[in-house]
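Minutes, project huddle
Topic: does the predicted pose make sense with magnesium ion bound?
PN asked that the exact inputs be recorded in the minutes so nobody has to dig through chat later. Recorded below.
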Amino acid sequence: MAKPKKRYVCQACGSVSHRWQGQCADCAEWNTLVEDAPATVFSLKHDLSSGGRAVEFVDLDKPGEMPLRQKTGLAEFDRALGGGLVPGSAILMGGDPGIGKSTLLLQAAAKVAREGHSVAYVSGEEASGQVRMRAARLGLSDAPVKLAAATGVRDILTTLGQMETPKFLVIDSIQTMHSDTIEGAPGTVSQVRGCAFELIRYAKENGVALVLVGHVTKDGNIAGPRVLEHMVDVVMSFEGERSHQYRILRALKNRFGAVDEIGVFAMAGDGLEEVENPSMLFLSGREQPMAGSAVFPAMEGTRPVLLEIQALIVKLQSGATPRRAVVGWDNGRLAMLLAVLESRCGLSFSSAEVYLNVAGGYRLSDPAADLAVAAALVSALADKPLPNRSVWLGEVSLAGEVRPVAHGGVRLREAAKLGFDKGFGPSDTKNGSSGLDYSQLGQLANLVDRVMSS
Ligand code: TYD
Ligand code: MG
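Predicted holo structure (tokens), as shared on screen:
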């Protein structure tokens, strides 16, 4: 029999290679290839058309099978989940170290346990004593959460099999788990995948809502193979700047709900507080308008959130290549907007460094922000503040037109409610009976004229 071929798996992206290389050919990470147990290959001659067990097929409209969602009681968490935990589902929660994943899940676990459901929290990272100390700090010591410090999946599943099946199970984190049926150290691709598979199978068979905490690599992906994201039902990411107070819980994938709702939390001394009305959070509260700052009424799911976009333009003397740095927005979109401003409006940014920042550590992905970003850029370039208490919305096309956006009326009404009195945007958006003084800008050039002539 031929010797099984060695295979090497990249620990960053999960791609397989048949010889060891210093750099992964797929994701270009260095030193991530690790030898993996060879896969068993079945002979193609195997006949699979007999000897299996019968699989039950049901009709799509079979009634009475929809599982009820279990509310965690943390309304912002439930909102991001699309209405609560689904029994028998697996959720992967990613986020930077120290962002508050363990805190959030301990708070959710305590809430569910206080409702009288059985809840288990398994920490592979901290000793039970540490988790208890955190619970004491959060004022949750009296919640009947079953707490364990363990990393062996076999031990965990054996123990769970002997106690009351939990409604809600937290595994913190999947990278610390190991299974004795799989070779390799905890955290390697095969271990992460194998442990997740066993835990998810347990959750599905027993109707447990399972949360797996996943570490995040420096480029923002959940460490371990991408297959983990395929195995679970929901992928959530907990985001924010550690130096800022606000945290945003976002669903990146959800087999049971929409992925556009977010949960907003604030990290306080005694844990995460829910922020029910986030629309004012990310504004500076400054009275006097400043050059290079524009306010954008964003939509997060069904809720409007007002954001301040800040631009800084530094003219360069020499012919050095100017920098473009973006925090909280898309690099490629900034490059596109600068190109449109140059070619359609005759402005020049080519010998200037451009810095763009979304205030409050917020990550913005709404294309309707184009006009606000352009307004901040033009205002910074001209060193002229935009009109006081104004909001800007609209998508900008490559031809320099300002295009309509979804939910224009809702956004403007929210801005009006928060004390803004001027709105600028595409021509076919009505002011939504918001009471705002709304100016239509059909072309990006109209914006430039307005700012330059003010
Ligand atoms: P943690 O939940 O341990 O983060 P993760 O599990 O994502 O790594 O949160 C750790 C941070 O949260 C830590 O830097 C301190 C801060 N924190 C507070 O500010 N208030 C609190 O009540 C708690 C428990 C943590
Ligand atoms: Mg943690």
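Observations noted during the meeting:
- Residues 110 and 143 are 5 Å apart (CA to CA).
- The first strand starts at residue 7 and ends at 10.
No decisions taken; revisit at the next huddle.
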